[in-house]
Specification:
The complex is a heterodimer of chains A (257) and B (209). With 257 residues, chain A is mainly α. Chain A contains twelve helices and no strands. Classes of the chains: A mainly alpha (257), B mainly alpha (209). At the A-B interface, helix 1, helix 2, helix 4, helix 5 and helix 12 of A face helix 2, helix 3, helix 4, helix 6 and helix 8 of B.
Chain lengths: 257, 209
């Protein structure tokens, strides 16, 4: 009568159990359970016999001896090229390449970021020295981010081709530069301003003049800050990822010797 | 060689003492070569791999951080063997069948008949094919533990995995190899000859439970 129940084997695979049984690695209780099962299950006995015979065959392998001495000569020990390295590119090459690329991207982003901040810092210096109002600075920032034709229109220059549409059809006697000055002077009725007339009027009343309330400044700063923060975050992530990958690759290479 | 002697030799080798390192080579070269040959199954390639592994070991001996020195050396030659297979796969020019070494079963009786010798050789070849059919990690575990006689601890250190993982790989490798060997039942010892009815029953253990 066979007792090979599912409950008996479900704890682990048959091969794991039989392998441990052959190696004498089971605890006494489990060994006794299997011994009891072996008394009734011919299948289990055969399977155990097969496993044991496989192990015996593997252990009966003719021993292999080194055909010669592998002791190193000084030339081998201190020679210029390592034979293992001549067999072709190491499998670690892609890991190193990926890590180096990540670090390079991070450094490029940092460089770009430094340039961006440097430029805005320079503009800030000009503004502080009175050569450029804050509004002019903001307007220039906005213009520089526009496509060439739109930028030309914004500064009052005649575009090469007139673009049809309500904005381009309207006369542009003064460019964005003069618009910025107008805004600063508080001309809320100017339809070109997208700022709040009430806000500008109140600014005038307060005598703030060139204040941060001028409408042209807000959007450009709002755009600049998230951009550099995002760039910095990306750079840090790339450098952190690249450095970790490099360290892991170097450790793996040391392990491989 | 005692453990303190070995440690002293390792320290001297780490300081650049080549004769001290060569004494370690003499101690472990048979095992290193044997693992290379069991995995590569090519005597000439195994010689190159063992030699290169010892050169690499000497040049990187400062990265050895204790533990079994044998396991460290065998790990180097194992990695070198895997690299060798990869590069051979890339080149695809070398004949895989050239200089292939099959598994040799130990001679039991010196008065072996020619028929018996032929059967033994055939069984050895069948075992080699069975080992080659295993996944690389199971093959390495079986070769280290069952063929080369490594302890589970040494095999775990060589493979840089836990002892439980080695046990599992060995068990699965043995099971697959047992099933593979049964494809040529006429070559096998009597313990292997399972009746087909029994096989059906073990395939569905819940049926009689």
């Amino acid at each position: 009568m066979m007792r090979s129940s599912w409950k008996f084997w479900r704890r682990t695979s048959i091969d794991d159990e039989l392998s441990s049984y052959v190696d004498g690695l089971l605890d006494e209780a489990r060994r006794a359970e299997i011994d009891a099962e072996l008394k009734t299950s011919q299948v289990l006995r055969q399977r155990l016999g097969g496993t044991r015979a496989t192990v015996d065959l593997l252990r009966s392998a003719e021993p292999v001896s080194a055909p010669r001495s592998f002791a190193l000569t000084p030339e081998q020990a201190y020679g210029p090229a390592r034979p293992l390295e001549r067999r072709g590119p190491s499998p670690m090459v892609p890991a190193f390449a990926a890590a180096a690329a990540a670090v390079a991207v991070g450094l490029l982003l940092v460089g770009n970021l430094a340039g961006t901040l440097g430029q805005s810092g320079g503009a800030r210096d000009l503004m502080e020295s009175g050569m450029l109002t804050r509004q002019e600075n903001a307007a220039e920032s906005t213009i520089s981010s526009l496509p060439p034709m739109m930028a030309a229109t914004a500064v009052g220059e005649a575009p090469a081709e007139k673009v049809a549409g309500p904005e381009s059809a309207a006369p542009a006697p003064q460019g964005a530069r003069s618009f910025a000055l107008k805004s600063a002077a508080g001309t809320p009725e100017d339809p070109a301003t997208d700022g709040s007339p009430a806000l500008l009027a109140s600014a005038d009343k307060l005598g703030v003049g060139e204040t941060a309330l001028a409408p042209a400044t807000a959007p450009s700063e709002a755009v600049l800050l998230p951009l550099w923060q995002l760039e910095l975050a990306l750079a840090l992530v790339a450098i952190a990822f690249g450095s970790s990958a490099l360290v892991l690759a170097l450790r793996r290479r040391a392990g491989r010797a | 060689m005692t453990a303190p002697d070995e440690q002293q030799l390792i320290s001297r080798a780490q300081a650049g003492d080549l004769p001290a390192f060569n004494r370690l080579v003499e101690t472990y070269q048979h095992q290193v070569f044997a693992v290379a040959m069991r995995l590569a199954r090519n005597r000439a390639a195994a010689e190159d791999l063992a030699q290169d592994a010892f050169i690499s070991a000497f040049r990187n001996i400062r990265s050895y951080r204790g533990g079994s020195f044998k396991a460290w050396l065998v790990r180097i030659v194992t990695n070198a063997t895997y690299d060798y297979f990869r590069s051979r796969e890339r080149r695809k020019t070398e004949s895989i069948e050239a200089n292939v070494v099959t598994f040799e079963i130990r001679l039991v009786s010196p008065a072996e008949s020619p028929e018996s010798a032929a059967e033994r050789a055939e069984l050895g070849s069948h075992i080699s094919s069975g080992l080659d059919s295993l996944p690389a990690d199971q093959k390495l575990a079986v070769v280290l533990v069952d063929v080369q006689g490594f302890s589970y601890e040494e095999a775990a250190e060589t493979m840089q995995v836990s002892i439980g993982t080695v046990k599992s790989r060995v068990a699965r490798g043995r099971g697959k190899l047992r099933d593979f060997l049964q494809t040529r039942p006429e070559l096998l010892p009597s313990q292997f000859r399972l009746d087909t009815e029994g096989e059906k029953q073990i395939a569905s253990p819940g049926r009689d439970g």
